Structures are given as C-alpha cells and as structure tokens.
C-alpha cells in the first residue's frame, strides 16, 4: 500500500510506512510497493511468459505501487526509472544475480515441517558459525543438511549462517550484499534457505542468521537511485553509512526492521547476528537496535519461542543487552571478542595491532571473571579509556570464541591455528573456551583442527573494483599494525575460494578425531555438570610463577580448573582441592595427550595442560 497518514489524539498527522517489495495478497494477486521519493514516475516491467509488459505505478507520498493478478512465483520483474531498469530493493529472489530482474517469491507458500519446534533458550546456546559456500563442496543450503546430524552429535545447539543477502557473483563472505531481502541465488535462493531451516529444526538445531545493516556492498548497489538510503554525515570502513537518523530516514529504518522481521517470521530463523553495530550510526532518541529487537521479540511472543538478537560490537557497552526499562537496547546478547584476544596473545604470541593490548594471564583471568578486559580502563592501543563494567549481567548474554571468520580471515593468509599451533596448545584452547561461563561459539571445522585456510574472497565483475579490493586489503593490514612476510592470496581468484572448502574428516585414531572427542566431551560437560551450568559464579586468578591460571566455576562444590599456559611443565600448585577428583585433562591419552597416568594429584602439570577437578556426582 502507499504511505497513509493517521492522526494522533492531538490532531498531529503521523506517517505510516508500508512493507515494500512484491507481496502476495490473500486473493492471490501480487502487489508491488516501492519507496522512491527521488523520482516522480516509476514503471513496473514484468515478463509474463516471456512477454514483456509494463505499467506506470501509482505514486503517493514517495511510495509507488501496482497490482497484477495471475502471476506465479518465479515471474521476473524490474523497476524502470529514467529509462534504466533496476532490481527491486526489497526483492525476495534474484535468480540471475544482482544486476538482473527480480523474481516474485511467496515465502508463506513454503510447506514447513517444524510445527513442534520450540527453539533453544539463551542459556543453552552453543553456536556454530558456518559459511554456506565453503562448508561443503557444493556450497549450497541443501548441501548443509546432511551434515547437521554431526553437529547435533557434537553438542552444537545452533548454527549461525554468515550473511546470505544477495551479493555479486558466487564467491563472497556475504558482507558485500546489496539486496538484503533476497537469499543468495548460488546458495539455492529463498526456498533453499527455508529447506535448510526446516531441516535444522527437525534435527534439533536453531538457526541464527548474520545480517548486515551498517553498509551495503559496492557492486549492484542501486539503492541511491530510489531514495536517500545513505548519508554523508558519517562514514564506515566499507563506504557510505546508511541513513538512520537524517532527513527521510524513517522509511530506511523501516526497511531494515521489516527485513529483520522477515527472516524470523517467513524463514523461521531463531535469531539474528547484527554485524558491527558500532558502525550503525544512529543518534536519535529511539535507537534502531532497540526497535529491531522489539519488533523481532513481538514475533517471538506470537510464536511462543525464543528468538535471539545478538550484536557484534567492539565497544564493550553493557547497554546493548540491558532491557529498555533500564535504558538499554534490549538485545539478547553481544560478542565479547576480548576473550579471543587474550587466548590468542597468550598461546600464539600475537603482539601486533590490537593484540598489543592483551597478553597477560591477568587479562585472561579478568575475561573469565568480568568478561570485558577493558571495562573502563585505559587502552594503550586506543589511547583512551574504553568500555564499561559488565557487572552481574547474565553471562549467557556474552558470546565468546577462540576462532571466528574475522579472526581467521583477517590474518594475511587466512591460515587456521591448526597450521601454526601445536596439538597440545589446540587442546588447551578448546578447554579454555568451553569452561567459560559465557556462550561459546565455534567456527566451522575448529572442532577437528581443520587445516584448510579461510582467506577473504570475492567475485566482483568490475575491474576497477577488483583492483581497489586488492589494494585495500594490503592497506587494511598496514593500518591495523600487522606485518606479513608473504604475498596475500588474491581475493578475486577462484582458487582462493576453493582453498577454503572444509576437508570435513576426523579419523578416530588421528589428532583430528581426538580433538573432536575433546570438544564433544566438554560440550557434554557444559550440559551436565552443575558448576558449568552456573553462569553467575566464576572466579579466576593467576597462580604464582607467571604460568598458571586457576578458574573456579560455581559455588559450594565448585569446579576448579588449573591451566598451564607455558611450554614448560610446571609443579602442581598449592591449591585447596578438598575431596575433588580429577574429572578431565586435555592431555589425557584419549585426546592424544601425553598424560599416561590419572593420578589424583600429579607432581606437575604438563606443558599447555588444562585439568578439571570436581566431585564425581557433578558428572550427572
């Protein structure tokens, strides 16, 4: 429908902002609504059984609309403005790519089989981040489905899919999308995504979708042909900022809010990961993030299932997860990357760029106990105080990892830690992650020590843009203070993309199978051991000698973890274990480790060993 006006109690006229796109109506017709205040006339072009038809859309208050009958899904259409044809900014399907006509798609016609699905509560989330294009040889939504049982058996409860909004070509991380309502055609389009979500729910897995609202990609981006979607008031590292608080920003905000709701309502997604919210510039009195969360949670309430809205942010700002009544944004969770930075600085020795600000055992202890390392303290890298204390907020709202797409892909070669860290360090890193009180996230393949890289890749069609991307990658590493000694992989080369495909193999007698067993055992422990289920009581401190860390989970009969963060064996520390027994060691022979005996109190900790001590009855 075109924009309508309603009156407030005092007679003030308030605009309403209708859903946009080609939407199937109850009578079977298709109604198009386009927000295009920059043009007075828009022509709808439709290819009906290969015959090109056109009609001028009716316009009112910046909205243009048209309605046609007897159109099946798959019918191609485009908008013609000033003699040029463009895809629909709210296209639900782009079968031929970002530069070609859109296609009618009615997501409500999909036949679902998940009526019994009740979702996954926040405190049960174990997230597995995956990239559809490289997760399988086929690189499609459908190809993911046969691998879901293995993830369920591992102990994963939710998959997080990297962005699928239509991007140019067939090779991209997904953060260069330009049509956020259309699921990537080369992955299988919208129907393919619905089949994957449906299958995941039947397998007992939630589906979180990574969405990008801070910018749109550079190729196939025709939004500015229709309206003031962008602003020059701010700038992001990836281009012009989206207009969320300037003149005519209300329809832009609604465009994003409706998109978030579409994934939850029409595609049954169980949550969204909001990319880099610190680059969403919105200084109005009603924060966009809060409006997204409120709209999504309204759907969750209707459908009586938990839906999670998780932000990526480097601001260490607890307000993101505070409820609106406490002047917060009301999000379900937020990434806490500083845990990763501490682990990597300590175990891999990284000390360039932002890793300079981490690297002590005290920092890691604070990451366990207070989550944010920089919670108001001075940062030598930022050269100012940074962050605020997380306080007593539920630790399940904080997402931690030891790998993610950025932290692997933004290494110069995209090389994974399995190629440069020893086996015992990899086991220790696994243990450090999975004893955290926060929500853990794995990156695809880490559970078995995947060795294939995950470099940055793309498939743009413009030579100048390709050259700019190559140049920009080198400059980005230089600006972050990272040095590298080898030539960067060419992001445009198909071989770079192919190199990222998972091997997806973990023979039981080899390191990969044993590492995966450690992940599975620790994920099982998180579900069954009472102290690990207690998210609110965690203490941590370095032990004398500058090599050992003690982490205590729970109260009363707590679980005690002792980690040796050095390459040398260390005398077993003088700590009070009471009648606790050794429950798990990352150096046990079952995991490929060097510990040959299970003494209740050994003389020493082996290099890079984590030991868990507790009551046997906790393992129920």
From TrEMBL:
Compartment(s) where it occurs, according to its Swiss-Prot or TrEMBL record: Cytoplasm
Entry GO CC: cytoplasm
Main location: cytoplasm
Residues binding substrate, per UniProt: 273-278, 337-341, 405-410
GO biological process: trehalose biosynthetic process
Functional pathway: Glycan biosynthesis; trehalose biosynthesis
Region annotation Disordered: where it falls in the sequence: 1-22
Active site location: 275 (nucleophile), 312 (proton donor)
Catalytic activity: hydrolysis of (1->4)-alpha-D-glucosidic linkage in 4-alpha-D-[(1->4)-alpha-D-glucanosyl]n trehalose to yield trehalose and (1->4)-alpha-D-glucan
Record SMART domains: Aamy
Record-annotated site: Transition state stabilizer: 406
GO MF, one example: 4-alpha-D-(1->4)-alpha-D-glucanotrehalose trehalohydrolase activity
Top-rank lineage group of the source organism: Bacteria
Keyword Acetylation listed: no
Domain Glycosyl hydrolase family 13 catalytic: 107-473
The UniProt record lists the keyword Transcription: no
Keywords noted in UniProt: Carbohydrate metabolism, Cytoplasm, Glycosidase, Hydrolase
InterPro entries documented for this protein: GH, GH13_cat_dom, Ig-like_fold, Ig_E-set, Trehalose_TreZ, Trehalose_TreZ_E-set_sf
Enzyme Commission numbers on file: 3.2.1.141
One matching Pfam family: Alpha-amylase
Similarity-based family: Belongs to the glycosyl hydrolase 13 family.
NCBIfam families noted in UniProt: trehalose_TreZ
Protein name from the UniProt record: Malto-oligosyltrehalose trehalohydrolase
Gene source species: Planctomicrobium piriforme
